Amino acid sequence: GFLPSRRKARRGSAAGPPEGARRAAARDGGGTGAATPLRAPGVGELRAECVRPPGRRVGARAVAHALRPEAGTTGPLGQAFPRRVGQASAPVAPSRQRPPFCPFAALDQQPRAPGVELPPKGRGVDLGVAVILQSSDQTVLLTRRTSTLNISPNLWVPPGGHVEPDEELLDGGLRELWEESGLQLPQGQFSWVPLGLWESAYPPKLSWGLPKYHHIVLYLLVISQESQQQLQARIQPNAGEVSAFMWLGPDIAAAVAATEDGTETPKHLPQDLPSSVPTVELKENGGAQPLALPTSTLLRTTPGTADSRERVSTGTKFALTLWLQHLGRKSRDGS
């Protein structure tokens, strides 16, 4: 997750998941072989497009190391993400969005007390990556952050966290997936595509207090050839960060994504939604137990004052919307 201290305990070994699991990636649409690094020629454009108060430093070391800009390239942000790895033609521009109540935007519209640093002096804007893991039967994995975390406790999010120096974006996403869920995807049995960029702050609203952390998060859709049942059989959640997990299908995901935070009038929700969603909750003794989580919990929006009640993060709703759009395009294309 997005923790104040980036270095987390590794699962199994200090070196992280096996090299084959970290580097292997099939092309979007099928195929096998070693991953071609995801590169972003327009790093300067990425920084320019990010919405931020004047004078804020965007990118930090993570952007420079992870995106690895090519010398002399000045293409727009959309050209930084080819539709398929190694295929520079037919670029697809990832969506870029921030919540309507972004505290940095609110601060930019009002006077600030002298000497206030946002976030803590010298931190800048960190780069994160989050994985929307899709099973072969079209469900996606969400995890609930533990109640003891300092940032965003009890939020439902996909596995993700900071990108480390000299780490490719896909590698960072696969590492975070492994560290938080214990899942390693077999080489040649998954494909992937970038979904979108999200500007995130914590606390998420100015009414909660001044923001202390600022991230640009890249959501990656990783499509496994394994079913939900096959993947779940191998899940070993990291109890230090994850307290529960679930698999969402398109219907529930659409309802969750429709509960847009910051809007005065909620969208119309289907009347035939189930009253609960099957969930697996971790017990204090290290075991796990099934839990019927009320669907209403997933439909909560961000409250006006500081509140650690269980809900789905606003950025996750954005990512679920993009995932559903991706499914719709695949359906129309007949693939």
From TrEMBL:
Residue ranges, annotated region (Disordered): 1-45
InterPro entries xrefs: NAD-cap_RNA_hydrolase_NudC, NUDIX_hydrolase-like_dom_sf, NUDIX_hydrolase_dom, Nudt17_dom
Cofactor(s) named in the record: Mg(2+); Mn(2+)
Pfam family membership, one: NUDIX
Superkingdom assignment: Eukaryota
Residue stretches making up the Nudix hydrolase domain: 122-270
UniProt keyword Magnesium present: yes
Biased segments, Basic residues type: 1-11
Keywords: Hydrolase, Magnesium, Manganese, Metal-binding
Catalytic activity: a 5'-end (N(7)-methyl 5'-triphosphoguanosine)-ribonucleoside in mRNA + H2O = N(7)-methyl-GDP + a 5'-end phospho-ribonucleoside in mRNA + 2 H(+)
EC number assigned by the record: 3.6.1.62
UniProt GO MF annotations: 5'-(N(7)-methylguanosine 5'-triphospho)-[mRNA] hydrolase activity; metal ion binding
Family affiliation: Belongs to the Nudix hydrolase family.
Role description: Acts as a decapping enzyme capable of hydrolyzing monomethylated capped RNAs (in vitro). Hydrolyzes monomethylated capped RNA after alpha and beta phosphates to form N(7)-methyl-GDP. Shows low activity towards unmethylated capped RNA.
Listed name of the protein: m7GpppN-mRNA hydrolase NUDT17
Organism, scientific name: Bos taurus (Bovine)
